[in-house]
User: What shape does this take?
Amino acid sequence: MKYSSLKVNAKGKEQHTYDAIVIGSGISGGWAAKELCEKGLKTLVLERGRMVEHRKDYPTATKHIWELPYRNRLTHEQIRENPILSRCYAYEQATEHFFVKDKEHPYIQKKPFDWIRGYQVGGKSLLWARWTQRWSDLDFEANAKEGVAIDWPIRYRDIAPWYSYVERFAGISGNRDGLPQIPDGEFLPPMEMNCAEVYFKDQLKTHYTDRHLVISRTANLTRPHLGRGPCQHRDLCYRGCPFGGYFSSNSATLPAAEKTGNLTIRPFSVVHSIIYDEHTQKAKGVRVIDTNTKETTEFFSKIVFLNAATLNSTLVLMNSKSSRFPNGLGNDSGELGHNLMDHNYNARVEATLEGFEDKSPFGKRPTGTYLPRFRNFGQDRQSNFSRGYAYSVGGSRRPGSEQGEAMIGTELKKDLTNLGPWKIEMTGMGECLPYHENKVSLSETEKDDWDMPLLEIDAEYKTNELNMQKDMVDSAIEMLQKANLKDIEEIPMNRNFGLNIHEMGTARMGKDPKTSVLNPYNQVWGCKNVFVTDGSCMTSSACQNPSLTYMAITARAADHAIKELKKQNL
Amino acid sequence: MTTMDRKGFLQQLTLLGGCTLMAPTVLLQSCRVEPRIWSNLSAKDIALLDELGETILPKTDGQPGAKEMEIGKYVVEVVTACLSPEDRDTFLYGLTSIDANSIADFGRPFEDLDEEDRYGILKALQDEAVAFNEKQQGKLEPEIHYFSLLKELVVTGYFTSKTVMTEVFDYHPVPGKYEGCVDFDVAKDKPYKG
Ligand SMILES: Cc1cc2nc3c(=O)[nH]c(=O)nc-3n(C[C@H](O)[C@H](O)[C@H](O)COP(=O)(O)OP(=O)(O)OC[C@H]3O[C@@H](n4cnc5c(N)ncnc54)[C@H](O)[C@@H]3O)c2cc1C
Ligand code: SF4
Assistant: This one.
């Protein structure tokens, strides 16, 4: 490895030594920091982006739409400069400061891949949609039952107490629905379903035994919780919440970590690589490049938690080369970088519901309803795809009708100032299988401004995902027809791999160091004091939104790390 | 735009489409009033855009019209900053066409027409746009009619303006709660906006 071009500042080693280092301050890094600090470890959080302080650094949070540039519409310049980012629905004038711009952090697409990132203290926890269904053994057992990839090294019973643990702190609103494919958790009161959703739920119950519509479990606080919230139902969460109404690192985990007095956060610090010590066969610290000065500094610790989000964590591992690990830290198996997954959301159907003209919603609910998996589950067996999907379902009633499209003048105005009909839209959320060929690797020729090789991403949906996609559309249409909705319309979707922002895999957990990168407690095989607990550790993708599972896995791994430290095993 | 059945407009369009660059002289010869040709938008277009906006969303009892919401200023800003060059060209071509249309049929630019004639011109364009959009369905790269662009801008600008949001609607930016099904009387209740 060459570092000749970089000035290494190894002065003051003691000053640069902590009990624990956490790389990244997003959803998983925030949890690692909280857990480790609360257990008394002096913890350094290294974050490549700038500081974002809760409340203070949410400049648009309370702006009315008429106060935003171009009433919140992106400029052509923004779209032209950011073809990838502008495909993300949450990118707008009010949120643009929380997203990585295409040109700032390039990567190489072997096949189309939209990599949506938030580089700042808080990471994407500021930007997420907060849907938090638990996974179940339907998911954890799937690989083993089907002989796909490798088996998860954990089962629901291993993670269930940690789901409860993180839910109690994060604050998850939801209803106890008693559905085994999305086990119930520790819920704050659920948000309400609206007329269209209640109607559709009842219709599904009449026509099917296996289709259940529930309010999505969501990390928004429906009542005051640990000094945060409650949520005011404005649905402006992506801007940061002045009420602390939703879970983010900035509002929840980092303040808790800070309260212990054990936390140091160092923004503008890109972790370049993890330093492996050949004698102890452990990591002794990390190399950091200051984004402002480009100066390299080393920091040392007993344990390292790698939480830079799936692809960046894998990049850091790949870039941590030593004579023991010439192909990247922990890559004895050759699986590092492989088995990249996302979800497939390319199925959307909209329809109109007649009736309930004398009813309207009030307020803006920052979530939707959820129709959990029913395919290849219970009695259902599909012949042309394995696994399954869920739907996000939204009932709504807004001003304006279809007829308005042909109107102008007073007629149009009347149409647009009155409520139109109720609508229901359904978006399928399909599981993706872990394929060895879907992978990332380091560019051999191109580097970024911090001397890190660019990531090459090479992944695609395959037959299973595409067959499932067709069924997601067909089943949505069938359900809406049976429920007697009108004007049922498929909205063609062509979201690239990655755009569902549930990138997972590339450093999977397993039971066997020959076929996996991480052990059952997320320790790197062959370098046990490095824990990787973000989406890179996932062995399969399920069809639920994954971040709650990252939180639970992180808290579980931190607990294990503390116990192992106490036993002097690390 | 081929569905246009009004003779005067069609003639002007042919002129415009065929020779935009030399149009001023050609048009000068054929018209008493000189139609304008747009290659960009600026503050001097606000008055015209206000009147176009007002025709699409006019003042009614108790509700302001688009002009009062300074729609012209908004349209100038958004066309300049937010539309793609292709859409901007379509939009500018549209203004040029509307002007030519108005002068051909009435001998006066759009701003100088009475309400009824303004409505007549835009209603014809609305019908034309509906037919045009129908033909685009299923096309790989559908084109957009300039009137649809204009209407979208007017509607968006109007419905995101402060007075409309706070007075025409039941505006609660911090509602404090979500209720899925509250009673709503079409005759007397204002729709909720947040
Ligand atoms: C619009 C949107 C909607 C979403 N909706 C949902 C949802 O409803 N439910 C759900 O479960 N998930 C959702 N997600 C995904 C969710 O945000 C991510 O899964 C989650 O944030 C991942 O947590 P993380 O800790 O792995 O990474 P992040 O939250 O991305 O944090 C990673 C941090 O590491 C930092 N970093 C990266 N590289 C380095 C380095 N080399 N050195 C130092 N620091 C580094 C980054 O700057 C960042 O701050 C959504 C995401 C978006 C953008
Ligand atoms: S919807 Fe709730 S959590 Fe989201 S920004 Fe508004 S108040 Fe905050």
